[in-house]
Amino acid sequence: MAISDLWYKNAIIYCLPVAKYMDADGDGIGDLDGLARRLDYLAGLGVTCLWLQPFYRSPERDDGYDVADYYAVNEKYGTPGRFVEFMNHARALGLRVIIDLVANHTSDQHPWFQQARRDRHAPTRDWYIWSDQRPPDHEKGIVFPGSQKTTWTYDEEAKQYYFHRFYDFQPDLNTLHPSVRDEITRVMGYWLELGVSGFRMDAVPFLIERKGAGVAHEQDFELLHEMRHFLQWRQGEAILLAEANVPPDESLKYFGDRGDRLQMMLNFPVNQRLFYAMATADLGPLTWALRETYKRPPEAQWVHFLRSHDELDLGRLSPEERQQVFDAFAPDASMQLYNRGIRRRLAAMLGNDRGRLELAFSLLFSLPGTPMMLYGDEIGMGDDLSLPERECARTPMQWTSEPHGGFTRSDRPIQRVIDDRTYGYKAVNVSDQRREHNSLLNWTERIIRMRKECPEISWGDFEVMATSASEILALRYDWRGASLVTLHNFAGRRAKVVFDLKGPGGDLLVDVFNTNGDSHGRGGRHEISLDPYAWRWFRVGSPDNALHRAAQ
Ligand code: GLC
Fold this sequence. Notes:
Blueprint: E1 13-16, H1 18-21, H2 32-37, H3 39-45, E2 49-52, E3 56-57, E4 69-73, H4 80-92, E5 96-101, H5 111-118, E6 130-131, E7 152-155, E8 160-163, H6 178-193, E9 198-201, H7 204-207, H8 222-234, E10 239-242, H9 251-255, E11 264-266, H10 268-280, H11 284-292, E12 301-305, E13 312-313, H12 319-329, E14 336-337, E15 341-342, H13 346-349, H14 354-366, E16 370-374, H15 430-435, H16 440-452, H17 455-459, E17 461-464, E18 472-479, E19 482-489, E20 495-500, E21 508-511, E22 519-520, E23 525-530, E24 535-540
Parallel strand pairs: 1-2, 1-16, 2-5, 5-9, 9-10, 10-11, 11-12, 12-16
Antiparallel strand pairs: 3-4, 6-8, 7-8, 13-15, 14-15, 17-18, 18-19, 19-24, 20-23, 21-22, 21-24
Helix pairs in contact: 6-8, 10-11, 10-12, 14-16
The structure holds alpha-D-glucopyranose (GLC).
The site of alpha-D-glucopyranose (GLC) has 9 residues, from loops.
């Protein structure tokens, strides 16, 4: 397979909400024109694929994850014409765009639901899930504990209860209904026609679930195959990226044993254990998660991330492990969310410590898979804990030290721009960091450039190496005759690691970032000391991989 065929394998994904990125028309709300003006910035950073969070018509009670019209661009952000112009600009810069597909539920304002609730015989009535009685388990399976009280709510107009996995204004669609399935593919077909390269599929485990009062747990993985089949028929290069926070042994069902379902999944198992490792320097659970998610069909790819627009979900750690992460990164209850996670931004969690931030980003860009970044993390944006729930990490992008961080000309931005001493827009903004050689922004740009030149990471086979140091993660990647080794010291103290490197060229490790960092090891035995939180990437046997790589 040629590298460019499976473009997503070596992609750099960047996720952003249009509303918070850049306001071009001065109404205080980010828009597609504003985003279009920032595409050169994104291309310059080295991003290759944007993930746009929902920008559809919506009452926006869940930041657009409550869709009222899948075919309409929210008027606040632009028009379909502006979307096409934005896509055209992105394409010219070689940037791909994937968009959120929120098909598990609609907004209660969606015309389908409006019609359904008015009339028991309406064609869309059984596109939703109803019950005359409130099922006894209506408090089970709540996704937002503390903010959501039930999964079944009575609707006065419908005179029945309806099921909603998430908030009560997000009635679940009956995705086993053939007409609903047709609608989902129709929506996909529409946006594919406008040039998107695929979809980030929201809430996949719930999407494929048989829903209803008293029904036994059952999932219809065939829906994923149908969607993939449709997608590939319409647009051969497009991908599906699943949000599915499931244990590793379930992931193959989402990829499909033969890679015939979803191409990509966000790697939640690694994500939470990565933060546990950063909190404790105990690498056991992280190593376990990397090994458990090793097996996958050749086309499939994991997407690694540090923070996303949601809380950092630690729900699959043991209570003791979770507590240790809370103690280290979110000691105050106001920093925690839904009894299971952390709602802060990365820089704030790591105390704005540059060394620790670099360690985290170096891991993001070298874990075996495709990296996904959250907007603003490249400059170390902070959070605003006075905002509710997940909103605290969704503040406007900080472009300059001008009023409202250069996000808008309006005096009333959609959300207050962070303005504190450490993380405020006067201290943390793109324009200052552009001018400063060693800024986090320029550092990130450089590491992304190197990452793209290391397809061993995204395409290769990998192994968690056995070494002498328990606090150092040592990964080896092999692909087409070229090998790479990365080391990450999770501890806040200096540590030495000894390991044996088998195979050709094993005597020489060339540090790809640092001219003084090479390691010479007789018989492939290397002894390397790492400063607190230090990290290194080495090519095996040679400073470059092009000459030594086997033919395609
Ligand atoms: C997903 C999204 C989240 C949203 C939820 C309901 O989990 O990531 O932001 O609230 O789905 O659509």
